[in-house]
Write a structure and sequence with these properties.
The chain has 417 residues and is mainly alpha-helical. The protein has 24 helices and no strands. The protein binds one RNA strand of 18 nucleotides through α1, α3, α5, α7 and α9.
Length: 417
RNA sequence: GUUCUGGUGCAUACUUGU
C-alpha cells in the first residue's frame, strides 16, 4: 500500500494519493510511519502546510509520531518555499523532540541556502554539520558545488570539488555535471570538455543532462555546428535528445538568427515524438519577434495556446515588444488585456517596452501615461525607462527637458549609464 | 516501501542615432 502511495506522490498525483489513503484507512488498514511520511511529502508538494499540521495531529491520535524523515521532508519543503528561517527553526527544534538531524537534514538546509544566494551561511552550516560529528556525503558537496557554480565562483567551486576526493569520496555524475556546467556557462569549452573526458575516464556514462550542458555551452559562444556535433555524438552513444536538449539548440539557433534552422529542428522534434513545452514556444516566439517576424511569432503563440501550454510574462513581453516595434498597437492592447485576463500583470519590462516605444515615436506624453501607471502599480522607474524618456525628449527636439530629466534621474538615485 | 544534489526560454527578456 505504501509503495502505491509513494508511486502516486512521485508522479505528482497528490489528490489521488490522498483519496486512496482515505480508502485504505476506511478499509481498516492502519497507517504506519512510512504512510505518515509519504502523506506529509504529498501535502508538502502541494504547499499545503496547514494540512500537514492537522494530519500530524490526526496521526498522533493513532500513536504515530513524526521521525527524522518527517522533519527532513518538512524542512526541505520550507526551504523550497524560501522560508529559510522556518527551516532552521525546525532543524533546531529537532533536539527537543529527541530527534537527531542527519545528513539529509543538513543537505536540505544547505540546498536552501545555496538556492537563495546565502552561500556564506551554507558554508557555516557545513562547519556546524562537521562539528556535530556528521559525515557529509557526495550530495552534500554537490549541493555546494551547484551553489557556487551558479554564481560563477570558479575558485570556490574547484576548492569544493577537490574536497570531495580529500574527504575520501568519489565525484559522481552530478559532481561532474556541476563542473561542466560551470565552464560551459563561462564559455570555457576546453575546460568543460576536459571534465567530460575525465568523467568518461573514471567510467561514468554521460547522460542527457551532461550532453545538454555541453550543447548549451557551444550554443552560447555561437558554435552551433559544434553543438550539433555534440548532439550527434550523444545519439551515437545511445542517448536520445529530450525536450530540454532541443530547447537548448533552438535557443542557440534563435540567438544566431538562424530561424530557418530552428524551424526545421522544431519540426524534427515533433516528428520524433517529443512534445514542445512552453519553453520551446517562448524561445521560438522570442526569436521570431527579435527577427521582426511577428506574424510567425503570433502563429506560434496560437499553436501554443491550442496545445494547452500556458504563456508566461516573458512570452507576452516578447510579443508585445515585437508588435510595438511593428507599430501594431491594436495587437499590443489585445495581448495586454489577454495577459491580464490570465492573471499576469505587466512588470517593469512590459512598461519599459511601451514607454520606449512611445518615446521612440516622440510621443513623450503618451509614454508618461504608462510611466504614471507603472509608478501607481508600485514599480520604480529604472535606468532603462529614464533613458527612454530622455531619448523621447531628444526625438521631439526638447533638449532642455531632456537635460532636466537627467537631473531628476540623478535626484532619484538612478545612475545614468 | 518514505526525505536531500546537476541541464533548456526568462533576471544577459525592455533603452543604447543605424
Amino acid at each position: 500500500c505504501n509503495s502505491l502511495l509513494a508511486g502516486l506522490v512521485r508522479m505528482d498525483w497528490v489528490d489521488m494519493a490522498r483519496d486512496i489513503y482515505h480508502e485504505i484507512v476506511d478499509m481498516g488498514v492502519s497507517p504506519n510511519i512510512y504512510t505518515l511520511n509519504i502523506m506529509v511529502n504529498a501535502f508538502c508538494k502541494d504547499r499545503r502546510f496547514d494540512k500537514v499540521d492537522s494530519f500530524l495531529l490526526e496521526m498522533a491520535e493513532k500513536g504515530i509520531f513524526p521521525d527524522v524523515v518527517t522533519y527532513n521532508t518538512l524542512i526541505d519543503a520550507r526551504c523550497r518555499a524560501g522560508h529559510l528561517e522556518e527551516a532552521v527553526q525546525l532543524l533546531n527544534s529537532m533536539d527537543d523532540k529527541g530527534l537527531k538531524p542527519d545528513v539529509a537534514t543538513y543537505n536540505a538546509v544547505l540546498n536552501g541556502f545555496c538556492k537563495n544566494g546565502q552561500h556564506g551561511k551554507a558554508k557555516e552550516l557545513l562547519g556546524e554539520m562537521l562539528d556535530v560529528g556528521l559525515v557529509p556525503n557526495v550530495s552534500t558537496f554537490n549541493i555546494l558545488l551547484g551553489g557556487f557554480c551558479k554564481i560563477g565562483d570558479t575558485s570556490e567551486t574547484m576548492r569544493i570539488y577537490d574536497k570531495i576526493a580529500n574527504s575520501g569520496l568519489i565525484p559522481d555524475i552530478v559532481s561532474f555535471s556541476c563542473m561542466i556546467d560551470l565552464f560551459a556557462k563561462k564559455g570555457d569549452m576546453n575546460q568543460a570538455l576536459a571534465y567530460f573526458r575525465d568523467m568518461k575516464g573514471v567510467g561514468l556514462v554521460p547522460d542527457n543532462v551532461i550532453y545538454t550542458m555541453l550543447i548549451g555551452g557551444f550554443c552560447r559562444i555561437g558554435l552551433i555546428s559544434e553543438a550539433l556535433k555534440m548532439r550527434d555524438e550523444m545519439v551515437d552513444h545511445g542517448c536520445l535528445p529530450d525536450v530540454v536538449t532541443y530547447n537548448t539548440i533552438l535557443n542557440g539557433m534563435c540567438k544566431e538568427r538562424r530561424l530557418s534552422d530552428s524551424d526545421q529542428l522544431f519540426y524534427e522534434m515533433v516528428e520524433r515524438g517529443i512534445s514542445p513545452d512552453f519553453c520551446t514556444f517562448t524561445t521560438l516566439i522570442y526569436g521570431y519577434c527579435k527577427d521582426g517576424q511577428v506574424e510567425k511569432a503570433l502563429r506560434l503563440f496560437d499553436k501554443m495556446l491550442k496545445s494547452n501550454l500556458k504563456p508566461d510574462i516573458v512570452t507576452y513581453n516578447s510579443l508585445i515588444d515585437g508588435c510595438c516595434k511593428e507599430g501594431n498597437m491594436e495587437k499590443v492592447n489585445e495581448l495586454w488585456d489577454d495577459m491580464c485576463r490570465r492573471g499576469m500583470f505587466p512588470n517593469h519590462i512590459t512598461y519599459s517596452i511601451l514607454i520606449d516605444n512611445h518615446c521612440s515615436k516622440g510621443q513623450v506624453e503618451e509614454a508618461f501615461r504608462f510611466w504614471d501607471e507603472m509608478v501607481e502599480n508600485g514599480i520604480l522607474p529604472n535606468v532603462v525607462t529614464y533613458n527612454s524618456i530622455i531619448k523621447g525628449y531628444c526625438r521631439s527636439g526638447d533638449a532642455s527637458k531632456a537635460e532636466k530629466f537627467l537631473g531628476k534621474m540623478v535626484n532619484d538615485c538612478v545612475v545614468p549609464d
